[in-house]
Amino acid sequence: MVSHEQIWVQKYAPKEERDIVGNPSAVQSLNEYLIHFGKKDASSNAVILVGPPGTGKTATAYVMASKYDYDLLEINASDVRNEEIINRNIGTAALKKSLKNKNGTIILVDEVDGISGVQDRGGVGALLKIIKTTKNPIILTANDLSDQKFNTLKRTIKEIKYKSIQKTTILKVLQKICKAEHIEYDDQALEQLSENAKGDLRAAINDLQSVAAGKTSLKAADLYNLHQIRDEEKTIFEALRVIFHDQKIETIQRILWQVNISTRDFGLLMQRINEIIPEHMQDPEELANAYQALSKADIVWGEINRKAEKEVWRLFPYFSLELSAGVSLARTKTPYKFVNYYALFPRFFFQNIGKLKRGDMAGIGQKIRNKTGLSSSNAIEEYLPFLSLIFQSNPIMANKISEYFNLEKKEEQFIKKFWK
Amino acid sequence: MLRESEVWTEKYRPMTLDNLIEMEDKKSQLKGFIEKKNLPHLMFVGPPGSGRTSTVLSLLHDLFLDQFNFNVEEINATDSKEYLMKYKPKWFNIAQQDYNRQESGTPGLNFIIKSIFRNFPMMRTFSEIPFRVLIIKDADNLTMDIQQALRRTLEKSSRTCRFILICENLSKIIAPIKSRFVVMRFNPLEAPYVSAILRYIISKERIDIQEDALSAIIFLGRGNMIRTINMLQAVAAVFEGKSISSDAVYQVIHQFVDFKVKQVIDFALNKRFLEARERLREIFLQFGLTGQQIYDRIRAILFKHPIPEAWKVAIFDLMGEYELRMKKGSNDEIHLSAFLSQLGVLKLN
């Protein structure tokens, strides 16, 4: 019988209160809520635990349930959570006392910020009604409550904030796990893992398991392959927002000086502006003017880069003015709108989905996808140009390929004429 | 062992970790999982054709051996409802039943995908390894809504299943999902490795190809193995029985480029800037042309283009200005984009 290893995040999940690491005041608040619940001095019928992923929100709820002898009913974002379903699932549970010898049932509604406005219509409202009348404790969790649809919720119930777990705390947990798993470790390796996790304990444990699985010792060199990608860039995005929103030259100039952009990154900034211009400027006239400015900025930049002498840097203000204000003021007709810059990068390969929805192309895309696993649009992009050539010039090979993808006669014809 | 397929990208897809080229560090990490007969939830991040899928399939073949087909399923986040109906009827029918408990009619795409996430963990396996694996390709196309749904399904179901996400752009994956996965990064394959793979295929398929033609394919493929192998197969098909030179390779590629360049011009003149730029970018990235070369192709195509001659004069005038700017500037694409945006406001009579 082979022994099957558990996922460490679960194996080492806290079982008792003293196992919980970080956020002691949050744990204390939760204790108080459960002690006072249902009594006259209760301050709130429910609590919401708010904080970044991997800080122990759900884990604490489970520990508390067993400490105060409650059952726990968990509802999460993978269940549809509209008004009707919330009433059916939580509504009845909130009013019922447990049949067993327990104090009742803690209702844990995980990831409240995942309740969507459209599909889970009325979900938040229904939740609030239940909270008013509940006879059982209700604990909600969320990563982020900044959306205004949660305003009433925040006013009604007690918010308990969770902070990222400190690096040193994460380090201690990792050391403990290594000891329990009989893995010898370099201090440096564990330190780097703790650092990479950026306050997310779950991420740290997952990373540890992935690099230490099947090993008896862990060295810093083993982390070579481990991503430094749990970070995101912020400053450039802030600058972009100002450039495309504010149309005051002074403000825009100031943000360009304030944000922490190294010289090398100005090239990157131009790339991004190049990417964003059509999102904000939809009139051909505006578009042409914005690109005119960007193109001038790049000429000055080329000059500065090529000479790299001190005196050329005197041109810098012209570069930054064209780059920012020149582009910004080109928008005269299209009103400012919110654009999710994060979602735009890197958008290198286009996906022409409209084209794919039509007729033969769609069918061919699906057939290639079915054999290769590529998305239909990528399948078209990567395969069709080359298949077209093969179908035009080599009928024998074409026949075999056609058989493999299960193509129909008219689809073969379509591929053949793809370039015509 | 080779797969039965006349499509070389599939025929020569590695089936076991030992056959993967390069990636020694990744391999040892993955073999660790196989030894323990356990997997974390895994996320493979990188550009298309960098070996993400091949690595996943090799890993799972090595892990499940002859049980692979029973334990592994895949969906693509961009799959349409029609595709799922036709090619994944099992999942579609389950979603249909779920849906009809509440409403009549057929479920939407979001509902089907959520239903797959809900139901996949419930299907137990009877093989030695106690979990099944769902591969989600192009996972960066999952909507926020669906990513939220995936979140908790993950941990609650770790007894019975693992998820493997394959994606290109990590920034489109929400933080709580990233946090629950072990991430592995892939880069475009480096030339020596591409070369080794191509040489293997060339020997198996008995292709007569000159050294410089091989270099041209490697250059044009830009480390994307799907494109590289497809290109090799297309060139081999067109010039079957002949010795293939680099001219032959470029002859094939120029057909594509000219087709695309014409599209760029037409879209730009019709004030459809975004579509024009997307194709421009393809030419840059897929075929590795410089701005200078693109202007050359534009010129060649414009001569033959059926627009009135007077328009051509106006366009050539603009081209001159922006080609000059490009020479002075630092970033080719910016000036080409600027040129295209000017085509949209060209005063033609």
Assign the CATH class of the largest domain in chain A.
Alpha Beta
Our Rg estimate of chain B from Cα atoms comes to 24 Å
Largest interface: A-B, 98 and 104 residues
* CATH homologous group name of the largest domain in chain A: P-loop containing nucleotide triphosphate hydrolases
Task: Provide structural commentary.
The complex is a heterodimer of chains A (420) and B (349). Helices cover 54% and strands 7% of the residues of chain A. Chain A folds into four domains: 23-161, P-loop containing nucleotide triphosphate hydrolases (Rossmann fold); 167-225, Orthogonal Bundle (Helicase, Ruva Protein, domain 3), CATH 1.10.8.60; 235-343; 353-416, no CATH class. Chain A is extended and about 75 Å long. Mean pLDDT of chain A is 79; it is low at 227-234 and 346-358. Chain A has helices at 8-11, 24-36, 57-67, 83-95, 123-133, 151-156, 167-180, 187-196, 201-212, 235-245, 249-258, 265-280, 284-307, 316-328, 341-344, 353-356, 359-372, 376-393, 395-405, 409-416; strands at 46-50, 71-75, 105-109, 138-142, 158-161, 184-185, 217-218. Chain A is an alpha/beta fold and 420 residues long. Chain A contains 20 helices and seven strands. Chain B has helices at residues 8-11, 24-36, 52-64, 68-71, 81-87, 89-100, 109-119, 144-156, 175-180, 191-205, 211-221, 225-238, 246-269, 273-287, 291-304, 309-328, 332-343; strands at residues 42-45, 72-76, 132-137, 161-167, 182-185. Chain B has a five-stranded parallel beta sheet with strand order 2-3-4-1-5. In chain B, α8 (144-156) links the parallel β3 and β4 (161-167). At the A-B interface, α9, α12, α13, α17 and α18 of A face α2, α5, α7, α8 and α9 of B.
